Amino acid sequence: MSDLQSLQIPAELLPSDGRFGSGPSRIRSAQISALAEAGAHVLGTSHRQAPVKDLVRRVRAGLTELFSLPAGYEVVLGNGGSTAFWDVAAFGLVRERAQHVVLGEFSSKFAAETRGAPHLDEPLVLAAEPGTRTLPAADPEVDVYAYPHNETSTGVMLPVRRPEGATEDQLVLVDATSAAGGVAVDIAQTDAYYFAPQKAFGSDGGLWLSVLSPAAIARAEELASSDRWIPEFLSLTTAVANSRKDQTLNTPAVATLLLMAEQIEWMLGQGGLAWADERTRTTSSLLYDWAERRAETTPYVADPAARSQVVATIDVDEAIDASQITALLRAHGIVDIEPYRKLGRNQLRIATFPSVPPEDVQALIAVLDHVLDAAG
């Protein structure tokens, strides 16, 4: 392999924006401008007063429209990110035993939470080899089915649907952190479709948001009225009560809410979730088609039906050090395309969230062609 450290990438090949991270993700310049303009009126003010509550209302109303929520479904939010929601669910949604589909690092973490919870039975875990997928399966011994819409660490995507044969008393919890807002979904197939803002919604972390069904809210109320101890910060019923007032239990990151509200409204203005789904299909397909054309690259996820629309993982031939490629691109302003660290593969991981336009993906491909050609 040629030494790439001295290679220069022509400026005319570079994308207009070099941020392709899988989270934190690209934030559009229009969002930054809105933060600078509107932030002066809400930053540093009480989250119990109208300006910030109006901002929460914008987020909740925008998500209601974006996901075309069925009657009775509610948008609920709280502080702490999706990691905190795993604990919220372990306290407030899992009655006795959960079934977890584990496809990689992030889906395994939720399974570890319910396994470690002293008030719950040992979870049933359906695990797939990294880069492949398995589906939830109806089981009378569980009261919750938990699986990711998109496994961010590996770039594997699952269809969102209730397991055939599941009963009305079994809840479906879908971790949508890297899929929500970028992939079409039928929310009626879920009871908790939860996510954080730092992926498709082009914002910062620190919040969790969940679309809850009436059945999920009823389960939360059932468990809250039992003798189970639930910390207030992790109480789902507390989060529901506060969300209905367009607020959170404790002070939220107002800048995060403002960035997210702007992004949701931009998506709706472009055509909503159908537009976002088509865009991410287009941009991810550009990368997968390119990876299949070149001899040095291969889509990591072999099954095309399981490949993510929003996080494309591409293996690089072992004769070429992918870390040298990512270091060279970083020096030229193209950042965060390294593989997930714990996966340990010679790989590129490239996000194609809605904020990433096709022309920037095409430019990235041109840059990678230039580098791989030079690598020999």
From TrEMBL:
<dbReference type="GO" id="GO:0008453">
    <property type="term" value="F:alanine-glyoxylate transaminase activity"/>
</dbReference>
<dbReference type="GO" id="GO:0030170">
    <property type="term" value="F:pyridoxal phosphate binding"/>
</dbReference>
<keyword id="KW-0664">Pyridoxine biosynthesis</keyword>
<dbReference type="GO" id="GO:0019265">
    <property type="term" value="P:glycine biosynthetic process, by transamination of glyoxylate"/>
</dbReference>
<keyword id="KW-0808">Transferase</keyword>
<feature type="domain" description="Aminotransferase class V">
    <location>
        <begin position="44"/>
        <end position="334"/>
    </location>
</feature>
<dbReference type="InterPro" id="IPR015421">
    <property type="entry name" value="PyrdxlP-dep_Trfase_major"/>
</dbReference>
<feature type="binding site">
    <location>
        <position position="106"/>
    </location>
    <ligand>
        <name>pyridoxal 5'-phosphate</name>
    </ligand>
</feature>
<dbReference type="InterPro" id="IPR015422">
    <property type="entry name" value="PyrdxlP-dep_Trfase_small"/>
</dbReference>
<feature type="modified residue" description="N6-(pyridoxal phosphate)lysine">
    <location>
        <position position="199"/>
    </location>
</feature>
<dbReference type="InterPro" id="IPR015424">
    <property type="entry name" value="PyrdxlP-dep_Trfase"/>
</dbReference>
<dbReference type="GO" id="GO:0004760">
    <property type="term" value="F:L-serine-pyruvate transaminase activity"/>
</dbReference>
<dbReference type="InterPro" id="IPR000192">
    <property type="entry name" value="Aminotrans_V_dom"/>
</dbReference>
<comment type="pathway">
    <text>Amino-acid biosynthesis; L-serine biosynthesis; L-serine from 3-phospho-D-glycerate: step 2/3.</text>
</comment>
<comment type="subunit">
    <text>Homodimer.</text>
</comment>
<keyword id="KW-0663">Pyridoxal phosphate</keyword>
<comment type="similarity">
    <text>Belongs to the class-V pyridoxal-phosphate-dependent aminotransferase family. SerC subfamily.</text>
</comment>
<keyword id="KW-0963">Cytoplasm</keyword>
<dbReference type="InterPro" id="IPR006272">
    <property type="entry name" value="Pser_aminoTfrase_mycobac"/>
</dbReference>
<protein>
    <recommendedName>
        <fullName>Phosphoserine aminotransferase</fullName>
        <ecNumber>2.6.1.52</ecNumber>
    </recommendedName>
</protein>
<dbReference type="Pfam" id="PF00266">
    <property type="entry name" value="Aminotran_5"/>
</dbReference>
<comment type="pathway">
    <text>Cofactor biosynthesis; pyridoxine 5'-phosphate biosynthesis; pyridoxine 5'-phosphate from D-erythrose 4-phosphate: step 3/5.</text>
</comment>
<feature type="binding site">
    <location>
        <position position="152"/>
    </location>
    <ligand>
        <name>pyridoxal 5'-phosphate</name>
    </ligand>
</feature>
<feature type="binding site">
    <location>
        <position position="175"/>
    </location>
    <ligand>
        <name>pyridoxal 5'-phosphate</name>
    </ligand>
</feature>
<keyword id="KW-0718">Serine biosynthesis</keyword>
<keyword id="KW-0032">Aminotransferase</keyword>
<feature type="binding site">
    <location>
        <begin position="250"/>
        <end position="251"/>
    </location>
    <ligand>
        <name>pyridoxal 5'-phosphate</name>
    </ligand>
</feature>
<feature type="binding site">
    <location>
        <position position="198"/>
    </location>
    <ligand>
        <name>pyridoxal 5'-phosphate</name>
    </ligand>
</feature>
<feature type="binding site">
    <location>
        <position position="48"/>
    </location>
    <ligand>
        <name>L-glutamate</name>
    </ligand>
</feature>
<dbReference type="GO" id="GO:0005737">
    <property type="term" value="C:cytoplasm"/>
</dbReference>
<comment type="function">
    <text>Catalyzes the reversible conversion of 3-phosphohydroxypyruvate to phosphoserine and of 3-hydroxy-2-oxo-4-phosphonooxybutanoate to phosphohydroxythreonine.</text>
</comment>
<dbReference type="GO" id="GO:0008615">
    <property type="term" value="P:pyridoxine biosynthetic process"/>
</dbReference>
<dbReference type="InterPro" id="IPR022278">
    <property type="entry name" value="Pser_aminoTfrase"/>
</dbReference>
<dbReference type="GO" id="GO:0006564">
    <property type="term" value="P:L-serine biosynthetic process"/>
</dbReference>
<dbReference type="GO" id="GO:0004648">
    <property type="term" value="F:O-phospho-L-serine:2-oxoglutarate aminotransferase activity"/>
</dbReference>
<keyword id="KW-0028">Amino-acid biosynthesis</keyword>
